[in-house]
Amino acid sequence: MTIQNRIEAAEAYVKALSTGDSAAAQAAARHLAKDIVVQVGPRTFDGYEEALKRITGVWPLTPVYRKGTWPAPQVQGDRVTVNANMAPVGAGPTAVNLSFSFNDADQITLVEQENLVTQPMNETDKLPDFVKTRINNALANDTPLSVSYVDESGRPHLSLRGSTQVFSDSQLAIWVRGQTGLAAAVQKNPNISLLYRDNPTRSTLIFMGRAHIDPREEVRRKVFQTAPEVEQNHETWTTGVAVIIDLDQVDGATPEGRVKMRRAG
């Protein structure tokens, strides 16, 4: 056993895994035993070809791995370990632990990979504060929510709604300019869905609910006045309507936590 050879093998494997670089994968290939086994959580990949495939090219978690902090391998008995921390993300692990075993030729025979997700899961009937913050700051952060609805003729529509905001613990509000399009559609079909996506942090929030127009002046003023200033400056409050969305469910993940919200009752 040559400790330095084993450290170099682990470093080569980590470089390929964490970058998706083809040249790095080819450099790591010579360190893999023909009978190598890779265990990623409950999944097992047997043999050289499967192992090499797992560290070649871009996989769903490669963008997360690229932003991680990968420390130098540590020798622990006859094994080598790497314990990495990932940058804050919504969908993805917060830490990756690798353990390498070797044969007498210092080739890797076993890789045990543990992906840890530590963001708390919020199962609730109310919008968590971190979700409220993301919604209310969406336009300012260049992540306006996409809204999906069906018009009076049954045709689906998508639109970006920068005025989307939290109205209560279980409601969203949208200031809609004019009384056609979304405003007209929800009067016949109240079902509506919204998508929040912040790609750099892999944050996704999906909202489903039922929308209605609230004609009360105090509600209209509140929705208009709490919308982002740039939305207010499009036109005066007298020409639009306040669309209130009663949320039935919210699902998703951000670096601040995961959420599974269901309407009470």
The ordered H/E elements are HHEEHHEEEEEHEEEEHEEHHEE
Second rung of CATH, namely the architecture of the largest domain:
Roll
Number of helical regions: 8
- Number of E strands: 15
Proportion of residues in β-strands: 35-45%
Tell me the count of domains.
2
Q: pLDDT below 50 for ≥5 consecutive residues: which ranges? A: none
Mean pLDDT: 94
Span of the ends, CA to CA: 63 Å
- Structural category is alpha+beta
Residues in helix, %: 10-25%
Q: Biggest β-sheet, characterized?
A: 9 strands, mixed
Radius of gyration: 25 Å
Gross geometry: elongated
CATH homologous superfamily grouping of the largest domain: Electron Transport, Fmn-binding Protein, Chain A
What is the CATH first-level class name of the largest domain?
A: Mainly Beta
CATH fold call of the largest domain? Pnp Oxidase, Chain A
Can you walk me through this structure?
By secondary structure, this protein is an alpha+beta fold. It folds into 2 domains: 3-116, Roll (Nuclear Transport Factor 2, Chain: A), CATH 3.10.450; 121-262, Pnp Oxidase, Chain A, CATH 2.30.110. The chain has 8 helices and 15 strands. Strands 7, 8, 9, 10, 11, 12, 13, 14 and 15 form a 9-stranded mixed sheet that branches. The chain has a 6-stranded mixed sheet with strand order 2-1-6-5-4-3, with helices on one face. Helix 1 runs antiparallel to helix 2 (22-29). The radius of gyration is 25 Å and the shape is elongated. The chain starts with a helix and ends with a strand. The mean pLDDT is 94.
